[in-house]
Design a protein that fits this description.
This protein is an alpha+beta fold. It has helices at residues 32-49, 132-138, and strands spanning 10-18, 59-70, 79-87, 93-102, 109-121, 126-127. It has one domain: Thiol Ester Dehydrase, Chain A.
Length: 140
């Protein structure tokens, strides 16, 4: 399946993630819950690459909504190429999008998902304005 992303989505990161034997379920394919782990893995890797470390005594991102659409099964052995996109900065939120494809089948999207991220003051447990550096990163 070829997935067309609207212009407002900005590519920011990609990561190769190995499919582990333990990622599979009794049906012999990667369990649907693991796809969400792959989406989390690339988001966290992107944060690391841009020099951001969440600080429980400060501010940072919280996922408030996540989704994943499944188009083609992933199976062990293999590697997944995850591609991360961001868009739609609001006052306190932005969107992230991700495609997953096998490295040995370039361009064939096996799954696509995303998440709404809200910026939070952790001690107060309240949404706060996106920092300007985050807004700049997610603006297409």
């Amino acid at each position: 399946m070829k997935l067309e992303l609207p212009d407002r989505k900005k590519w920011v990161h990609e990561l190769v993630i190995p499919i582990r034997w333990g990622d599979m379920d009794a049906m012999g394919h990667v369990n649907n819950t693991v796809y969400f782990r792959y989406l989390e893995t690339i988001r966290i890797d992107w944060f690391d690459k841009i020099g951001f470390s969440p600080d429980p005594s400060g501010e940072g991102p919280v996922i408030v909504n996540a989704f994943c659409n499944f188009y083609k099964q992933l199976e062990y052995p293999g590697d997944v190429l995850a591609k991360l996109y961001v868009s739609d900065p609001g006052r306190t939120t932005f969107e992230s999008w991700c495609t997953l494809e096998r490295t040995d089948q370039p361009g064939v999207i096996c799954s696509a998902g995303g998440a709404t991220t809200i910026w939070v003051n952790f001690p107060n447990q309240k949404a706060v304005n996106l920092p300007e550096w985050v807004r700049d990163m997610v603006t297409a």
